[in-house]
Amino acid sequence: MKKKISLVGCGNIGSRHLQSLVKLPGPLDIEIVEPNGNAQTLAKSRLEEINYEKTNFNFSWHESINTLDKSDLVIVATPSSGRVNIIKQLLELGNSRFLIEKMVCQSAKEYELLLKIMNKANARGWVNTTRRYFDSYKRIKEFFDQPEIIHFSAISYNEGLGSNAIHMIDLFSWLCNNNIVTLNGDLLYDKLFENKRGKNFVEFAGTITGSVNNGSTFQISFLPYENIPSVFNIVGDGKFVVIDEINNKMEVLEGPENLKKLKFQNELVSNVTQKIVKDIFESDDCCMPKLEDIKQAHYELFRIFNNHIKKLTNNHVNQCPIT
């Protein structure tokens, strides 16, 4: 039976999802909601960059979700602000399977509402923290026996700690099979940074530390420098992995003399989304975290970022201005 996917939001990330969808075997109907003409133009130009069997795909473009029909899967790639209301409308149209961009929303209150309405509709949502689909990270997860205590650290240039910390935290949670993280933001920089996604959002830099209850720990540092690599270290009992994502390299050490230099395969949204969709269509599940799995990480990020904004501005905020 021919499948239908709705893609809601087709800007920079959404257009990469679109590039990946046309790598599926088809036949496939793709409904795209994007009211911004420049974003539509960008998405169509990026489609032209991909070689695909055009007869296998039927595209329809919409300026509003009000003209959509029910789909087999909805990919929600809008900004985080207002996203829960968009998903609510999509649920009312009969949709029940969602792949949702991070951050899911901007407050714990919104998140609780989303979980409530999803549960009421017997719907299921996964959050697009893509590193779980990297073959290199799958091998690393197998390398660390469970329930082994691990220590994870990441250092990167300032690509947006607010927007991207969730990726690192979810990777750590997945590696140690524990979603209940506790965060500390005392080492964030005493400055709010501009967010490239608009004036209604802010960004952060500095260091976030955290842990889970088995003793596994992590430290994530995004620094306001350019041209430094993104390097991740993962340490277990007698095991050590160093990953350089920018240069696609990793080193694996097991024991004092067994050092292996391996290729790390960084995978783009334009490649990963097709794998996620294929799994959802075949098994009604995928490797991405479900909404309930990544809830605690969101709540902790809302808490430390809102506290930091209050510290710097003396203003109490209810909505965490990250996306």
Secondary structure topology:
Elements: E1 3-8, H1 12-21, E2 28-33, H2 37-48, E3 57-62, E4 73-76, H3 83-92, E5 97-100, H4 108-120, E6 124-127, H5 135-143, E7 151-157, H6 161-175, E8 182-188, E9 193-194, E10 202-203, E11 206-211, E12 217-223, E13 231-236, E14 239-244, E15 249-254, E16 259-263, H7 269-283, H8 295-313
Parallel strand pairs: 1-2, 1-4, 2-3, 4-5, 5-6, 7-12
Antiparallel strand pairs: 7-13, 8-11, 9-10, 11-12, 13-14, 14-15, 15-16
Helix pairs in contact: 1-2, 1-7, 3-4, 6-8
Q: Can you give the helix content as a percent range? A: 25-40%
> Order of SSEs, N→C?
EHEHEEHEHEHEHEEEEEEEEEHH
Number of structural domains? 2
The CATH class designation of the largest domain is: Alpha Beta
CATH architecture of the largest domain: 3-Layer(aba) Sandwich
Number of helices: 8
Distance between the termini: 36 Å
Biggest β-sheet strands, sense, barrel? 8 strands, mixed
CATH names the topology of the largest domain as Rossmann fold
The Cα radius of gyration reads 20 Å
Determine the structural class based on helices, strands and strand pairing.
Answer: alpha/beta
CATH superfamily of the largest domain: NAD(P)-binding Rossmann-like Domain
Which word captures the global form? globular
> Order of strands side by side in the largest beta sheet?
8-11-12-7-13-14-15-16
Number of strands: 16
Beta-strand proportion: 25-35%
What does this structure look like?
- There is one protein chain.
- By secondary structure, the protein is an alpha/beta fold.
- The chain has 2 domains: 3-129 and 270-290, 3-Layer(aba) Sandwich (Rossmann fold), CATH 3.40.50.720; 131-266 and 302-308, Dihydrodipicolinate Reductase, domain 2 (2-Layer Sandwich), CATH 3.30.360.
- The protein is 32% helix and 26% strand.
- It has 8 helices and 16 strands.
- It has helices at 12-21, 37-48, 83-92, 108-120, 135-143, 161-175, 269-283, 295-313, and strands at 3-8, 28-33, 57-62, 73-76, 97-100, 124-127, 151-157, 182-188, 193-194, 202-203, 206-211, 217-223, 231-236, 239-244, 249-254, 259-263.
- The protein has an 8-stranded mixed beta sheet with strand order 8-11-12-7-13-14-15-16, covered by helices on one side. Strands 3-2-1-4-5-6 form a 6-stranded parallel beta sheet, sandwiched between helices. Strands 9-10 form a two-stranded antiparallel sheet.
- The chain is globular and about 55 Å long.
